[in-house]
Specification:
The protein is mainly α. It is about 55% helix and about 5% strand. The protein has a three-stranded antiparallel beta sheet with strand order 1-2-3, with no helix packed on it. A hairpin with a 4-residue loop joins strand 1 and strand 2.
Length: about 290
């Protein structure tokens, strides 16, 4: 029995993990197998807690970040929980492992003025790719959706009459996000040029490459990075930075934290509250710069 394939099937069908998470967890388990000096997944069944601690030490000594180590051990915990349920092992050797503490990393975001400059100055072009690229930036900024959610959008997920988009989030949680006026207008323009370029029934996917195929992560990263590079010097210029920007703008304009949680598709408030820290840091910096007694 290939225990890694069994684990992948479990993650896909029962945990409903995204393809990105599936690939990451599978790579993590294979990395552990490599540490054990085996390519046979049956070696996973005879692992001790000491083996896992040894792997943590090895990863730490190699300079791996606490965040990556944390994810890898989380993957092992999930794997062994699955194997225990199947009756392949008696106990989970990863249960009593203390996960390394991850230093709090405040999310980076683009200033609202910079985003206005980017979207108001039409440097994207009027062809199919230009309108598509601008809509991708606009949707990230106006809806806060994740990269995987953007790529997975279908034409049927867009309701132009009610002006909302339906998003399939993590664990297949579905949420409805309203489309602001400018985003709606740009989306209508995109749908028109998409039909002109590829035909009305070319593909069920909303966003297509210049060849009419479904867009892929590297292409979206490239579009976002090159666009943000024109208005910000942030070290990160990724789709997730635009998600952070969306949340920060809502919070700074007085939106309720629970409403932001629902719009972002967070399972609980803990993930959303990080934006309150960001806002505090921003206010603190302004205070220190402006107040005479700071």
């Amino acid at each position: 029995m290939d225990h890694i394939k069994s684990f992948s099937r479990y993650l896909r069908s029962e945990k409903r993990c995204s393809e990105h998470t599936l690939a990451a967890y599978e790579n993590d388990v294979r990395a552990f197998l490599n540490f054990l000096g085996s390519s046979d997944s049956s070696a996973l069944l005879s692992v001790s807690t000491r083996d896992i601690r040894g792997w943590i030490i090895s990863m730490s000594e190699s300079g791996m970040s606490p965040r990556t180590i944390h994810r890898r051990i989380s993957a092992l915990r999930t794997l062994y929980k699955h194997l225990q349920v199947l009756g392949e092992i008696d106990h989970n050797p990863a249960t009593i492992i203390n996960l390394p503490k991850i230093p709090r990393r405040l999310p980076q975001f683009v200033q609202e003025q910079a985003m206005t400059q980017l979207l108001d100055n039409n440097n994207f072009g009027e062809g199919y790719e230009g309108i598509r690229n601008k809509l991708i930036i606009e949707l990230f900024y106006d809806t806060g959706m994740r990269l995987a959610e953007m790529i997975s959008l279908r034409l049927s997920d867009v309701d132009m009459n009610s002006r909302f988009v339906k998003v399939q989030g993590k664990r297949s949680r579905e949420r409805i996000i309203p489309l602001p006026g400018e985003c709606y207008t740009l989306l209508k323009k995109y749908l028109d040029i998409r039909t002109e370029t590829f035909g009305a029934y070319a593909s069920p996917w909303l966003f297509l490459t210049s060849k009419g195929e479904k867009v892929y992560p590297k292409l979206i990263y490239r579009i976002v990075h090159s666009s943000l590079a024109t208005v910000t010097t942030l070290s990160k210029k990724s789709p997730h930075v635009l998600r952070h920007t969306y949340a920060s703008v809502l919070l700074n304009r007085g939106a309720d934290l629970n409403a932001i949680k629902e719009l972002l598709g967070h399972a609980n408030l803990n993930a959303t509250q990080v934006y309150t820290h960001t806002t505090f840091e921003q206010l603190n910096a302004i205070y220190k710069q402006a107040h005479p007694r700071a």
